[in-house]
Amino acid sequence: MNIVVLISGRGSNLEAIIKGYEEGKIKGKILAVISNKKDAKGLETAKKHNIPSYFINPKDFKTREDYDGHLAEFIKQKNPDLIVLAGYMRILSDLFIETFENKLINIHPSLIPSFQGLKAQKQALDYGSLLTGCTVHFVTKDLDNGPIIIQAVVPIKPEDTEETLSKRILSYEHRIYPQAIKWISEGRVTVNDRRVIVKDAEYGHIPVNPKLEDF
Ligand code: GRF
User: Fold this and answer.
1) Nearest to 87 by CA among 183, 180, 173
2) How far apart are CA 110 and CA 120, in angstroms?
3) Which of 73, 91, 157, 165 has its CA 20 to 30 A from that of 127?
């Protein structure tokens, strides 16, 4: 399965996905990595792995729709099976989302629908949640709210800071994102309205935090 990855920054999820391809766990290739930020570290990572990488400058376009229209055409030329948002920090216009319906996925560092939007890890800490996590989902016009493919639950500890919690969540992001892409590539993922089923996946693990002692 051939993918295009959109990034804006560090690109650690991109790295995890590249690893999945290089280790042969995911078949196909990464056709392109595209960033809306010139200095995105992920662009360097892509180059190192000989993946075509592109910076498309928002300043070259009058409106978001113009930018996204260009981006959509650019991506279509590559003819990917899937478009992967990996820390892409720009709201996508409706037309872009419609163009790639069911072919566009995102990762968000919370258990959606909790803590959508920016600084999800800080939101979870400030709220006093004891469990948060990360989610891979299909992208719909509702921000951070499309059909859920996989979620990992990550516990919050009393001593956590935004930094320590983000790090703990990130280590699971790096596992669930390549996993979701692999499942899609194997044709195991079906979507029925909001409900996603991964064929032959094992469902039903229950985490509790703090640990139960007496019951
Ligand atoms: C991740 O926390 C991801 O969940 C969020 O943006 C961050 C991107 O990190 N959407 P990286 O660029 O993949 O390192």
Assistant:
1) 173
2) 6
3) 91
pTM: 0.97
Instruction: Answer whether 35 contacts ligand 1 (Cβ < 6 A).
Output: no
| Spatial separation of the C-alpha atoms in residues 83 and 146, rounded to whole Å | 15
What phi-psi label fits residue 65: left (phi over 0), alpha (psi between -120 and 50 degrees) or beta?
alpha
> Any catalytic annotation for residue 49?
no
Q: Indicate which residue of 49, 70, 108, 174 is catalytic.
A: 108
The pLDDT tens digits for 30-83 are: 999 999 999 999 999 999 999 999 999 999 999 999 999 999 999 999 999 999
Provide the β-strand partners of residue 55: 35
Q: Which of 117, 74, 68, 118 is nearest to 97 (CA)?
A: 68
- Phi-psi map region of 128: left, alpha, beta (phi>0 left; psi -120 to 50 alpha): left
